[in-house]
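thought: fold this chain, then report.
action: predict
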Amino acid sequence: MDGLLSLVIPVYNEAESLGPLVDEIDEGLAAREGPYEIVFVDDGSGDRSFEVMQGLVEKRDDVRVVRLRRNFGKATALSHGFAAARGDIIVTMDGDRQDDPAEIPGLMAPLSRGYDLVSGWKQRRQDPLNKTLPSRFFNWTVRTASGIPLHDFNCGLKAYRRDVTETISVYGELHRYIPVVAAQAGFRVTEVKVNHRRRTAGRSKYGWRRYMRGYLDLLTVLFLGRYQHRPQHLFGGLGTLLAVIGVIIELYLTVEKLVFGEPIGQRPLLLLGALLIIVGIQLLSLGLVGELIANSRARRGPDPAQIRAVLEPAAVGRAPSPGGRRDGGAAGVAASP
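observation:
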């Protein structure tokens, strides 16, 4: 783990924190033998954040800045940071100094044990109750719905292998669910306890609107993870259930009319049964359309990002493929791109 390390730090109105944060990063990584770079992503800051970052670039050769045209949100900032990062290992952290850079070496340790993404688990969180209580409920909900046993999905302090950042797509506000998206893509995910500090400058960007957005994003992540390649299993199953219930209702009313002579023209149950049949057929049709889209994507071949490694016999007299190894009759191992 001594190759280039990239620190990706989204920034939004954190001018007072950036200078001390860089000093703490230098101190936290002083014992590390390999080089590192700091990639700031200015997400449309309205204060002096960009001027501070500009000064850091002029003083140091290991600081780079990506400035966005306006405030697009943390997910977009992370996506641009991932694209700009040059390291094989990427660590993300927030720019408000609540994440402790001294935790970075410990955060990276599980990567050497075969994990692909390591998420921080904030201990003794230094935030008010209006943030900690909803966060606990959020983490419990995501843990239960996704089946991924993490305690702090939204911790800004995370370590990634480059394969992860090149494979997953982070957009909208899906940054809260990066461990879920990575696990659904087949990467190994774990967590490490980290120190959390009180904010000393700037203002929190936490707001009540994120509750509804977080709920909708969770539905998106769960749907894409489970039904992206088999949409008919969701829409077709639900549509069939509704249609069957509707048919049963209509058969019941038919018996009521023909056998017992009961009037059914004004009964709400008649409209309910017809509505269920129509909605069921529409959901079945939607599932078929989804299958057509999934089929057209599948015709382009399997996704190479799903492959962890390829084992091939080493041919005598033939040079091994890039990334492979040949030792007598041993098999070559070609890592996925």
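thought: worth noting. Residues 307-335 form one domain.
final: tokens above.
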